[in-house]
Amino acid sequence: MYPQFPPGFRFGMSTSAYQIEGAADTGGKGPSIWDTFTARPGTVRNGQDGRVAIDHYHRYESDIALIAAAGVQDYRFSFSWPRVLGGDLGFYDRLVDSILENGLRPVPTLYHWDLPQELEDAGGWMNRDTAHRLADYASTLALRLGDRVRDWITMNEMNVHTLYGYALADHAPARGLGLGALPAGHHQLLAHGLAVQVLRTHGARGVGVASQHFPVTSATESAEDVAAATLFSDLTNWTFSDPILLGDYPSELIRAGVGVPDAQLDRDLELIGARLDFYGVNYYEPTMIEAPKAGKDYSGVLEVDIPDGMPFSPVPVKSDERTDFGWAIVPSGLTEILVTLKKRYPSLPPVIITENGASFHDAPPGPDGRVHDERRIAYLDAHLSAVSDAISAGVRVDGYYVWSAIDNFEWAAGFDERFGLIYVDFDDLSRTPKDSYYWYQELIKAQARN
Ligand code: FCB
Protein backbone atom coordinates (compact mmCIF):
# COMPACT_ATOMS: atom_id res chain seq x y z
CA MET A 1 0.00 0.00 0.00
CA TYR A 2 2.78 2.46 0.90
CA PRO A 3 5.92 3.15 -1.08
CA GLN A 4 9.08 1.80 0.50
CA PHE A 5 11.75 4.21 1.58
CA PRO A 6 15.43 3.45 2.10
CA PRO A 7 16.57 2.52 5.62
CA GLY A 8 17.25 5.63 7.67
CA PHE A 9 14.71 7.72 5.75
CA ARG A 10 13.33 10.34 8.16
CA PHE A 11 9.76 11.50 8.47
CA GLY A 12 8.96 14.87 9.95
CA MET A 13 6.62 17.81 10.25
CA SER A 14 7.27 21.52 9.71
CA THR A 15 6.08 24.81 11.16
CA SER A 16 7.36 28.39 11.35
CA ALA A 17 7.50 30.87 14.20
CA TYR A 18 5.22 33.68 13.01
CA GLN A 19 2.58 31.21 11.86
CA ILE A 20 2.19 29.49 15.22
CA GLU A 21 3.85 31.24 18.17
CA GLY A 22 1.69 34.30 18.83
CA ALA A 23 2.90 36.10 22.00
CA ALA A 24 3.64 39.04 19.75
CA ASP A 25 4.93 41.36 22.50
CA THR A 26 5.99 38.85 25.14
CA GLY A 27 9.42 38.65 26.76
CA GLY A 28 10.87 41.76 25.14
CA LYS A 29 9.98 40.77 21.58
CA GLY A 30 9.69 43.75 19.25
CA PRO A 31 7.63 43.82 16.05
CA SER A 32 8.56 41.89 12.94
CA ILE A 33 7.70 43.02 9.43
CA TRP A 34 4.71 40.66 9.64
CA ASP A 35 3.39 42.45 12.73
CA THR A 36 3.61 45.72 10.81
CA PHE A 37 2.18 44.33 7.57
CA THR A 38 -0.80 42.59 9.18
CA ALA A 39 -1.68 45.73 11.15
CA ARG A 40 -2.29 47.54 7.84
CA PRO A 41 -5.92 47.23 6.72
CA GLY A 42 -6.51 45.18 3.59
CA THR A 43 -3.29 43.18 3.66
CA VAL A 44 -4.60 39.86 5.02
CA ARG A 45 -7.87 38.04 4.32
CA ASN A 46 -10.47 38.85 7.02
CA GLY A 47 -8.06 41.35 8.59
CA GLN A 48 -6.40 38.54 10.55
CA ASP A 49 -2.89 38.50 12.00
CA GLY A 50 -0.45 36.32 13.91
CA ARG A 51 -0.48 38.23 17.19
CA VAL A 52 -1.96 35.21 18.97
CA ALA A 53 -1.71 32.76 16.06
CA ILE A 54 -2.28 29.37 17.72
CA ASP A 55 -0.54 30.45 20.93
CA HIS A 56 2.17 27.84 20.50
CA TYR A 57 4.42 30.04 22.68
CA HIS A 58 2.33 29.03 25.70
CA ARG A 59 1.24 25.59 24.49
CA TYR A 60 4.49 24.26 23.08
CA GLU A 61 4.75 21.38 25.54
CA SER A 62 1.47 19.73 24.58
CA ASP A 63 2.04 20.58 20.90
CA ILE A 64 5.44 18.90 20.87
CA ALA A 65 4.06 15.87 22.69
CA LEU A 66 1.31 15.55 20.09
CA ILE A 67 3.76 15.89 17.21
CA ALA A 68 6.05 13.26 18.74
CA ALA A 69 3.15 10.89 19.30
CA ALA A 70 2.71 10.68 15.53
CA GLY A 71 6.02 8.84 15.45
CA VAL A 72 7.96 11.32 13.33
CA GLN A 73 11.72 11.48 13.80
CA ASP A 74 12.28 15.16 12.91
CA TYR A 75 10.60 18.42 13.80
CA ARG A 76 11.31 21.48 11.69
CA PHE A 77 10.41 24.85 13.24
CA SER A 78 11.84 28.35 13.00
CA PHE A 79 13.17 30.96 15.38
CA SER A 80 11.58 34.37 15.59
CA TRP A 81 14.46 36.78 14.98
CA PRO A 82 12.73 39.70 16.80
CA ARG A 83 12.14 37.41 19.80
CA VAL A 84 15.80 36.47 19.92
CA LEU A 85 16.80 40.11 19.42
CA GLY A 86 14.55 41.03 22.35
CA GLY A 87 16.58 38.63 24.52
CA ASP A 88 14.01 35.85 24.94
CA LEU A 89 16.31 32.92 24.27
CA GLY A 90 14.78 31.12 27.22
CA PHE A 91 11.76 30.17 25.14
CA TYR A 92 13.93 28.39 22.57
CA ASP A 93 15.90 26.70 25.34
CA ARG A 94 12.71 25.22 26.72
CA LEU A 95 11.35 24.41 23.26
CA VAL A 96 14.50 22.56 22.20
CA ASP A 97 14.60 20.67 25.50
CA SER A 98 11.01 19.64 25.03
CA ILE A 99 11.69 18.50 21.44
CA LEU A 100 14.62 16.38 22.62
CA GLU A 101 12.79 14.98 25.65
CA ASN A 102 10.08 13.79 23.27
CA GLY A 103 12.68 11.92 21.24
CA LEU A 104 12.55 14.21 18.21
CA ARG A 105 15.46 15.66 16.28
CA PRO A 106 15.19 19.47 16.16
CA VAL A 107 15.79 20.90 12.67
CA PRO A 108 15.32 24.65 13.11
CA THR A 109 15.27 27.31 10.41
CA LEU A 110 17.03 30.55 11.29
CA TYR A 111 14.91 32.77 9.08
CA HIS A 112 11.35 32.11 7.94
CA TRP A 113 10.35 35.61 6.74
CA ASP A 114 9.79 37.47 10.04
CA LEU A 115 12.48 40.13 9.83
CA PRO A 116 12.71 42.46 12.86
CA GLN A 117 10.99 45.70 11.88
CA GLU A 118 13.99 47.71 13.07
CA LEU A 119 16.12 45.98 10.43
CA GLU A 120 13.48 46.67 7.78
CA ASP A 121 13.60 50.33 8.83
CA ALA A 122 17.32 50.23 8.10
CA GLY A 123 16.64 48.93 4.56
CA GLY A 124 15.66 45.33 5.20
CA TRP A 125 17.02 42.80 2.73
CA MET A 126 17.81 45.59 0.28
CA ASN A 127 20.58 46.52 2.72
CA ARG A 128 23.70 44.35 2.54
CA ASP A 129 24.28 44.83 6.26
CA THR A 130 21.18 42.74 7.03
CA ALA A 131 23.16 39.69 5.86
CA HIS A 132 25.82 40.41 8.48
CA ARG A 133 23.16 40.95 11.12
CA LEU A 134 21.76 37.51 10.27
CA ALA A 135 25.23 36.04 10.79
CA ASP A 136 25.37 37.63 14.28
CA TYR A 137 21.94 36.22 15.04
CA ALA A 138 23.06 32.77 13.84
CA SER A 139 26.02 32.97 16.14
CA THR A 140 23.85 33.95 19.15
CA LEU A 141 21.64 30.91 18.53
CA ALA A 142 24.49 28.51 17.90
CA LEU A 143 26.24 29.59 21.11
CA ARG A 144 23.10 29.11 23.14
CA LEU A 145 21.66 25.98 21.54
CA GLY A 146 24.56 24.37 19.67
CA ASP A 147 25.06 21.82 22.46
CA ARG A 148 21.61 20.40 21.66
CA VAL A 149 20.78 21.49 18.11
CA ARG A 150 23.10 19.77 15.64
CA ASP A 151 21.23 20.31 12.36
CA TRP A 152 20.23 23.69 11.00
CA ILE A 153 18.41 25.24 8.07
CA THR A 154 19.61 28.74 7.25
CA MET A 155 16.83 30.37 5.22
CA ASN A 156 13.33 29.51 4.05
CA GLU A 157 12.17 30.10 0.48
CA MET A 158 14.28 33.13 -0.38
CA ASN A 159 12.50 33.15 -3.76
CA VAL A 160 9.01 33.60 -2.29
CA HIS A 161 10.20 36.20 0.23
CA THR A 162 11.90 38.17 -2.54
CA LEU A 163 9.07 37.84 -5.06
CA TYR A 164 6.04 38.36 -2.81
CA GLY A 165 7.61 40.70 -0.27
CA TYR A 166 10.08 42.79 -2.28
CA ALA A 167 9.18 42.50 -6.00
CA LEU A 168 5.40 42.49 -5.37
CA ALA A 169 3.54 43.77 -2.33
CA ASP A 170 1.50 40.72 -1.31
CA HIS A 171 3.63 39.74 1.68
CA ALA A 172 5.61 41.77 4.21
CA PRO A 173 7.39 44.11 3.75
CA ALA A 174 5.30 44.88 0.64
CA ARG A 175 7.94 46.86 -1.22
CA GLY A 176 6.70 46.38 -4.81
CA LEU A 177 10.11 46.88 -6.41
CA GLY A 178 9.64 44.64 -9.45
CA LEU A 179 12.92 43.40 -10.89
CA GLY A 180 14.58 46.01 -8.66
CA ALA A 181 14.10 43.48 -5.83
CA LEU A 182 17.01 41.29 -7.00
CA PRO A 183 19.45 42.77 -4.45
CA ALA A 184 17.10 41.57 -1.67
CA GLY A 185 17.57 38.06 -3.06
CA HIS A 186 21.33 38.42 -3.23
CA HIS A 187 21.58 39.67 0.33
CA GLN A 188 19.55 36.71 1.59
CA LEU A 189 21.87 34.38 -0.30
CA LEU A 190 24.82 36.16 1.27
CA ALA A 191 23.18 35.75 4.67
CA HIS A 192 22.85 32.05 3.92
CA GLY A 193 26.54 31.80 3.04
CA LEU A 194 27.64 33.70 6.14
CA ALA A 195 25.35 31.60 8.34
CA VAL A 196 26.77 28.34 6.95
CA GLN A 197 30.23 29.54 7.97
CA VAL A 198 29.09 30.62 11.43
CA LEU A 199 27.17 27.41 12.15
CA ARG A 200 30.08 25.22 11.03
CA THR A 201 32.48 27.22 13.21
CA HIS A 202 30.19 26.43 16.13
CA GLY A 203 30.33 22.71 15.38
CA ALA A 204 27.06 22.11 13.52
CA ARG A 205 26.74 18.57 12.17
CA GLY A 206 24.32 19.26 9.33
CA VAL A 207 23.65 22.56 7.57
CA GLY A 208 21.18 23.07 4.75
CA VAL A 209 18.69 25.49 3.25
CA ALA A 210 14.96 25.18 2.45
CA SER A 211 14.26 26.24 -1.14
CA GLN A 212 10.96 26.23 -2.92
CA HIS A 213 11.17 24.61 -6.34
CA PHE A 214 8.59 23.81 -9.00
CA PRO A 215 8.63 22.80 -12.65
CA VAL A 216 7.88 25.72 -14.94
CA THR A 217 6.44 24.81 -18.32
CA SER A 218 5.81 26.98 -21.30
CA ALA A 219 2.16 27.28 -22.39
CA THR A 220 3.11 26.65 -26.02
CA GLU A 221 6.28 25.92 -27.95
CA SER A 222 6.40 29.41 -29.44
CA ALA A 223 9.75 31.15 -29.00
CA GLU A 224 8.12 33.99 -27.00
CA ASP A 225 6.40 31.65 -24.55
CA VAL A 226 9.50 29.53 -24.09
CA ALA A 227 11.60 32.64 -23.44
CA ALA A 228 9.05 33.92 -20.93
CA ALA A 229 8.97 30.58 -19.09
CA THR A 230 12.76 30.36 -19.04
CA LEU A 231 13.08 33.84 -17.58
CA PHE A 232 10.42 33.13 -14.96
CA SER A 233 12.12 29.89 -13.94
CA ASP A 234 15.52 31.59 -13.82
CA LEU A 235 14.11 34.23 -11.49
CA THR A 236 12.04 31.99 -9.23
CA ASN A 237 13.95 28.68 -9.24
CA TRP A 238 17.56 29.01 -10.34
CA THR A 239 18.44 32.47 -9.00
CA PHE A 240 18.22 30.93 -5.55
CA SER A 241 19.86 27.55 -6.18
CA ASP A 242 22.49 28.08 -8.90
CA PRO A 243 24.61 30.35 -6.65
CA ILE A 244 24.45 27.74 -3.87
CA LEU A 245 24.96 24.63 -6.00
CA LEU A 246 26.84 25.93 -9.08
CA GLY A 247 28.54 29.03 -7.70
CA ASP A 248 26.98 31.53 -10.11
CA TYR A 249 23.70 33.16 -11.17
CA PRO A 250 21.77 31.63 -14.08
CA SER A 251 22.20 34.62 -16.40
CA GLU A 252 24.08 37.85 -17.03
CA LEU A 253 20.80 39.75 -16.65
CA ILE A 254 20.43 38.49 -13.08
CA ARG A 255 24.12 38.94 -12.25
CA ALA A 256 23.79 42.55 -13.32
CA GLY A 257 20.43 42.93 -11.54
CA VAL A 258 21.75 42.10 -8.08
CA GLY A 259 23.78 45.29 -8.28
CA VAL A 260 27.07 44.12 -6.72
CA PRO A 261 30.40 45.10 -8.33
CA ASP A 262 32.04 42.14 -10.12
CA ALA A 263 34.99 41.52 -7.82
CA GLN A 264 32.81 41.61 -4.74
CA LEU A 265 30.18 39.46 -6.42
CA ASP A 266 32.75 36.75 -7.05
CA ARG A 267 33.77 36.79 -3.38
CA ASP A 268 30.13 36.65 -2.32
CA LEU A 269 29.45 33.74 -4.66
CA GLU A 270 32.33 31.79 -3.24
CA LEU A 271 30.82 32.09 0.22
CA ILE A 272 27.29 31.35 -1.00
CA GLY A 273 28.52 28.25 -2.83
CA ALA A 274 29.90 26.53 0.28
CA ARG A 275 29.19 22.79 0.41
CA LEU A 276 25.96 21.84 2.20
CA ASP A 277 25.13 18.69 4.13
CA PHE A 278 21.60 18.55 2.80
CA TYR A 279 19.40 20.48 0.42
CA GLY A 280 15.81 21.18 1.51
CA VAL A 281 13.14 21.22 -1.18
CA ASN A 282 9.68 22.68 -0.56
CA TYR A 283 7.18 21.63 -3.22
CA TYR A 284 3.52 22.55 -3.73
CA GLU A 285 2.58 22.92 -7.40
CA PRO A 286 4.02 23.50 -10.87
CA THR A 287 3.60 26.73 -12.84
CA MET A 288 2.78 27.35 -16.49
CA ILE A 289 3.93 30.57 -18.15
CA GLU A 290 3.31 32.38 -21.40
CA ALA A 291 4.46 35.67 -22.88
CA PRO A 292 1.81 38.27 -21.94
CA LYS A 293 -0.97 38.61 -24.53
CA ALA A 294 -2.38 42.11 -24.86
CA GLY A 295 -5.81 42.58 -23.31
CA LYS A 296 -5.91 39.16 -21.58
CA ASP A 297 -6.85 39.01 -17.88
CA TYR A 298 -4.33 37.03 -15.85
CA SER A 299 -5.67 37.77 -12.40
CA GLY A 300 -6.22 34.97 -9.92
CA VAL A 301 -4.04 32.35 -11.62
CA LEU A 302 -1.26 32.39 -9.07
CA GLU A 303 -1.85 33.15 -5.41
CA VAL A 304 -0.38 36.57 -6.23
CA ASP A 305 -0.86 38.59 -9.39
CA ILE A 306 2.16 39.42 -11.52
CA PRO A 307 1.72 43.10 -12.44
CA ASP A 308 1.22 44.26 -16.01
CA GLY A 309 4.41 45.09 -17.81
CA MET A 310 6.33 42.02 -16.59
CA PRO A 311 7.66 39.86 -19.44
CA PHE A 312 5.82 36.72 -18.24
CA SER A 313 2.28 35.75 -17.27
CA PRO A 314 1.08 32.68 -15.40
CA VAL A 315 -1.67 30.58 -16.97
CA PRO A 316 -3.60 27.82 -15.18
CA VAL A 317 -1.78 24.49 -15.00
CA LYS A 318 -3.81 21.70 -16.53
CA SER A 319 -4.99 19.67 -13.58
CA ASP A 320 -8.32 18.11 -12.72
CA GLU A 321 -7.74 18.46 -9.04
CA ARG A 322 -7.05 21.45 -6.87
CA THR A 323 -6.68 22.01 -3.15
CA ASP A 324 -9.17 24.33 -1.43
CA PHE A 325 -6.49 27.03 -1.73
CA GLY A 326 -6.81 26.59 -5.50
CA TRP A 327 -3.37 25.07 -5.92
CA ALA A 328 -3.08 22.44 -8.67
CA ILE A 329 -2.51 18.90 -7.40
CA VAL A 330 0.31 17.50 -9.53
CA PRO A 331 2.36 14.92 -7.61
CA SER A 332 4.47 14.06 -10.68
CA GLY A 333 5.76 17.65 -10.52
CA LEU A 334 7.64 16.67 -7.37
CA THR A 335 9.37 13.74 -9.08
CA GLU A 336 10.10 15.97 -12.05
CA ILE A 337 11.66 18.79 -10.05
CA LEU A 338 13.81 16.37 -8.02
CA VAL A 339 15.10 14.70 -11.17
CA THR A 340 15.72 18.13 -12.74
CA LEU A 341 17.68 19.26 -9.67
CA LYS A 342 19.83 16.13 -9.81
CA LYS A 343 20.57 16.70 -13.51
CA ARG A 344 21.28 20.39 -13.11
CA TYR A 345 23.49 19.94 -10.04
CA PRO A 346 25.85 16.96 -10.27
CA SER A 347 26.99 17.71 -6.71
CA LEU A 348 23.47 17.97 -5.28
CA PRO A 349 23.68 17.05 -1.58
CA PRO A 350 21.17 14.57 -0.14
CA VAL A 351 17.71 16.12 -0.40
CA ILE A 352 15.17 16.47 2.37
CA ILE A 353 11.64 17.44 1.36
CA THR A 354 11.37 20.21 3.97
CA GLU A 355 7.76 21.12 3.05
CA ASN A 356 4.93 19.46 1.18
CA GLY A 357 1.24 19.49 2.00
CA ALA A 358 -2.17 20.84 1.15
CA SER A 359 -4.82 23.22 2.44
CA PHE A 360 -8.34 21.86 2.65
CA HIS A 361 -11.10 23.66 4.50
CA ASP A 362 -11.64 20.84 6.97
CA ALA A 363 -14.88 20.64 8.90
CA PRO A 364 -14.53 20.76 12.69
CA PRO A 365 -14.53 17.48 14.62
CA GLY A 366 -17.91 15.75 14.17
CA PRO A 367 -19.93 13.71 16.69
CA ASP A 368 -17.27 10.98 16.49
CA GLY A 369 -14.66 13.52 17.57
CA ARG A 370 -12.69 13.03 14.35
CA VAL A 371 -11.66 15.31 11.51
CA HIS A 372 -12.10 13.41 8.26
CA ASP A 373 -9.63 14.79 5.73
CA GLU A 374 -9.34 12.05 3.16
CA ARG A 375 -8.35 14.51 0.42
CA ARG A 376 -5.25 15.49 2.44
CA ILE A 377 -4.43 11.81 2.92
CA ALA A 378 -4.72 11.25 -0.84
CA TYR A 379 -2.53 14.30 -1.48
CA LEU A 380 0.21 13.17 0.92
CA ASP A 381 0.06 9.58 -0.26
CA ALA A 382 0.48 10.60 -3.90
CA HIS A 383 3.35 12.95 -3.11
CA LEU A 384 5.16 10.33 -1.05
CA SER A 385 4.86 8.01 -4.04
CA ALA A 386 6.32 10.79 -6.16
CA VAL A 387 9.29 11.00 -3.78
CA SER A 388 9.71 7.25 -4.01
CA ASP A 389 9.72 7.52 -7.82
CA ALA A 390 12.47 10.13 -7.64
CA ILE A 391 14.52 7.83 -5.41
CA SER A 392 14.07 5.02 -7.96
CA ALA A 393 15.26 7.45 -10.63
CA GLY A 394 18.51 7.93 -8.71
CA VAL A 395 17.89 11.03 -6.59
CA ARG A 396 19.07 10.65 -3.01
CA VAL A 397 16.23 11.80 -0.74
CA ASP A 398 16.81 11.33 3.00
CA GLY A 399 13.57 12.62 4.47
CA TYR A 400 10.10 14.06 4.01
CA TYR A 401 8.42 16.68 6.23
CA VAL A 402 4.73 17.50 5.99
CA TRP A 403 3.69 21.15 5.89
CA SER A 404 2.29 21.49 8.43
CA ALA A 405 2.22 19.79 11.78
CA ILE A 406 -0.73 21.92 12.80
CA ASP A 407 -3.23 24.41 11.34
CA ASN A 408 -1.80 27.92 11.50
CA PHE A 409 -1.71 31.46 10.16
CA GLU A 410 -1.23 31.13 6.41
CA TRP A 411 0.34 34.54 5.71
CA ALA A 412 -1.82 36.81 3.51
CA ALA A 413 -4.52 34.12 3.42
CA GLY A 414 -5.02 34.25 7.20
CA PHE A 415 -6.61 31.34 9.03
CA ASP A 416 -8.86 30.06 6.22
CA GLU A 417 -6.19 27.84 4.73
CA ARG A 418 -5.63 24.76 6.88
CA PHE A 419 -2.47 22.79 6.12
CA GLY A 420 -2.19 20.92 9.42
CA LEU A 421 -2.22 17.25 10.34
CA ILE A 422 -3.65 18.59 13.61
CA TYR A 423 -6.87 20.59 13.52
CA VAL A 424 -7.06 23.84 15.50
CA ASP A 425 -10.30 25.49 16.60
CA PHE A 426 -9.29 29.13 16.19
CA ASP A 427 -11.82 30.25 18.81
CA ASP A 428 -10.86 28.10 21.76
CA LEU A 429 -7.48 27.02 20.34
CA SER A 430 -8.16 23.35 21.09
CA ARG A 431 -6.22 20.78 19.04
CA THR A 432 -7.58 17.60 17.40
CA PRO A 433 -5.45 15.21 15.34
CA LYS A 434 -7.02 14.76 11.90
CA ASP A 435 -7.42 11.43 10.13
CA SER A 436 -4.31 12.36 8.12
CA TYR A 437 -2.34 12.48 11.37
CA TYR A 438 -3.33 8.87 12.18
CA TRP A 439 -2.65 7.87 8.58
CA TYR A 440 0.86 9.36 8.79
CA GLN A 441 1.41 7.58 12.10
CA GLU A 442 0.48 4.23 10.54
CA LEU A 443 2.67 4.87 7.53
CA ILE A 444 5.69 5.63 9.71
CA LYS A 445 5.05 2.51 11.82
CA ALA A 446 4.76 0.36 8.70
CA GLN A 447 8.06 1.75 7.38
CA ALA A 448 9.77 0.92 10.65
CA ARG A 449 8.53 -2.67 10.46
CA ASN A 450 10.06 -3.17 7.01
C1 FCB B 1 5.38 27.92 1.96
C2 FCB B 1 5.87 28.57 3.23
C3 FCB B 1 5.17 28.07 4.46
C4 FCB B 1 3.69 27.84 4.23
C5 FCB B 1 3.47 27.02 2.98
C6 FCB B 1 2.02 26.71 2.70
O1 FCB B 1 5.64 28.74 0.88
O2 FCB B 1 7.24 28.34 3.40
O3 FCB B 1 5.41 28.98 5.51
O4 FCB B 1 3.02 29.03 4.21
O5 FCB B 1 4.02 27.67 1.88
TrEMBL record:
EC annotation from Swiss-Prot or TrEMBL: 3.2.1.21
TM region positions: none
Substrates-to-products reaction catalysed: Hydrolysis of terminal, non-reducing beta-D-glucosyl residues with release of beta-D-glucose
Hydrolase among keywords: yes
A Pfam family the protein falls into: Glyco_hydro_1
One GO CC term on file: cytosol
An annotated GO BP: cellulose catabolic process
Residues reported to bind substrate: 19, 112, 156, 284, 403, 410-411
Keyword RNA-binding applies: no
Gene3D superfamilies in alphabetical order: Glycosidases
Active site (UniProt): 157 (proton donor), 355 (nucleophile)
Keywords: Carbohydrate metabolism, Cellulose degradation, Glycosidase, Hydrolase, Polysaccharide degradation
Enzyme class: hydrolase
A single MF term (Gene Ontology): beta-glucosidase activity
Family classification: Belongs to the glycosyl hydrolase 1 family.
Protein name: Beta-glucosidase
Lineage: Bacteria, Bacillati, Actinomycetota, Actinomycetes, Micromonosporales
